[in-house]
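User: I'm new to structure prediction. If I give you an amino acid sequence, what do you actually give back? Let's try with this one:
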Amino acid sequence: MENLLTLLTKYRQRQVHLSLGKDGESLSVKGDLKGLSAADKAELKTHKEALLAFFKEQKAAKQLITPAEPTAEAFPLSPNQQTIWMHQLMDPESLLYVIPVVYAHTVPGLQPDRVVEALTAVVQAHEVLRLVFEVEEGQPQQRPVAVSAADHLTWVELAHEEDALAQVTSHIEQDQQVAFADLAGTPPWHLTVFHLGQDEYRFYVKLHHLIADGESIPQLIQELFKAYELQQQGGTYQYDGLQYRDYVAWLQKQRGAGSAQSFWQEQLGGYVEDFTHWLYREEGRVENQEIEQTHRFSTELSKQLRAYAKQLRLNPSTLFTFAYTWALRQYGRTQDMVVGIPAASRSHAQLGNVLGDFVNTLPLRAQYTDAATSEQVLRDLQNQYYQVLEHQMYPFEYILKDIDYTQQATQPLFTCVIAFPTHEKLGRSDDAEMTLRRHQAMYPLTCTVMDFEDGYSLVMERDPRYFPAAWVSQLAEAMETVLVQLLQGDQPLEALSLVSGRNQIQLDTWSQGPDTPMTPSTVV
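Assistant: Good question. You get back a string of structure tokens that encode the predicted 3D arrangement of the chain. For your 524 residues, that looks like this:
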């Protein structure tokens, strides 16, 4: 099966898309067909039956999710929800899974009472906004309850205040410090609407990750405006899509189904432990420390990286993933490592508009040998990336069980994550009017690659107990160094260096492993 995924990726990179024909029995080949050689056509003919079998299996795995009848009965948590629930149970005051987002909107004549009516309609239609979390017979469950939308909406009138925006910022900064205290009694979400004057508004949405992911929040605001506009026109808001409980029921049937189980067993077989097991750790929380650092690329370098990726028919994310893993590999002095890549896990056609938590952080294994060349490794990495995303609907918790990762209790499969926001292209990097900062890191280290019009930015989120600020800054600089070297053309991996001079001495000191722990005093 791995060979088939590699074959699909190869043709996808050449803008040739293979799929199951509409009749369910033929092989559909679309895209840039002029570039197909006689050898390519012969290859496709040789693998035709295997490809058809693969596509049919994939279609069966993505069978229609059957909506359940409306009910007030409780239902189990999804695997990812179970993980979040356990973490929250161990630290009820944790803000780790609180998601705050602010949207700026210009709305002529927005009426507060109509907003309440629209929100009521949306809450009634989407069960996930009425869920509370409790324990029944020793197992966590989620149950829909009666909800008054007005209790979850605050309207703040600032139209005549000179410092309206400053007051919004102050309110949000304070509110971000407040956790959802009663998950068993009240659905964990709230909407605050700030009226700044004229037709200018700020919509501040705060939800718990148990009921939403990053894609759910803009969807919620979109549904709210849809309901509002329909009411203004004398219509009625309706939603006939799936509920989150339908997804959970479908997900429970996926364990061991299709090819996902064998794929992950092949991908992660023989992996021992995360390379950061020796890193510095400080017991307890580290208070009052910035956990985010930003490293900006110049506009010119960003243009060169985009052009280089296009030239090699690579996704730019492949370049950054390589730079991240290569730098971590050098720092950790390991030939084998796994990083996490968050996936939306909404590839099933029926899940696009469903509110809820679908994010699945998948393991990507990076194994590099110095004898390989940079372009060969980049193409192999992109192949692997596509293969991993082909199985993004398979929960990470199932993967751990399938590979029998026995060290999970003491050492996670990975501690470092690289993320690429999936929303539309961002504006300029200095356009942000309000930045919401996290106060706790989701993972020990996360590198989020932001694609702004004026260049790339790396947002490095760290857990101070694991990674000192100076080390993370050095890592971001090393990533840029690697990317600049890639632009020089195909070359042996052993020719890629991260730093030079005094910084090389520092790097050597930091990467000595357990005998030389990476403590703050080590940072020069």
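You can read the tokens as a compact description of the fold. Here is one thing that stands out. The mean pLDDT is 83.
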